[in-house]
Amino acid sequence: MEMQSIEWSLAGKTEFFLGRGLLKSPLWIEKIRSISTRIALITDETVAELYGRILSQQLGAHLFTIPPGEKSKTREWKAQLEDQMIERGLGRDTVLVALGGGVVTDLSGFIAATFCRGIPFVSIPTTLVGMVDASIGGKVGVNTEKGKNLIGAFYSPHSLFIDLSLLDSLSIKEIQNGLSEIIKYGLIANPSLLSETVTMEMRVREGIKIKCKVIKHDPYEKGMRRILNFGHTVGHALEIASKHKLSHGEAIAIGMVVEGTLSGIDTAPFFKPFDIPLRWPKSIEVSEVLSALERDKKARAGKARFVLLDEIGKPRSFEGAYCTEVPLQRVEEALYSYPYC
Ligand SMILES: NC(=O)c1ccc[n+]([C@@H]2O[C@H](COP(=O)([O-])OP(=O)(O)OC[C@H]3O[C@@H](n4cnc5c(N)ncnc54)[C@H](O)[C@@H]3O)[C@@H](O)[C@H]2O)c1
Question: What is the mean pLDDT of residues 112-132?
Answer without folding.
Answer: 98
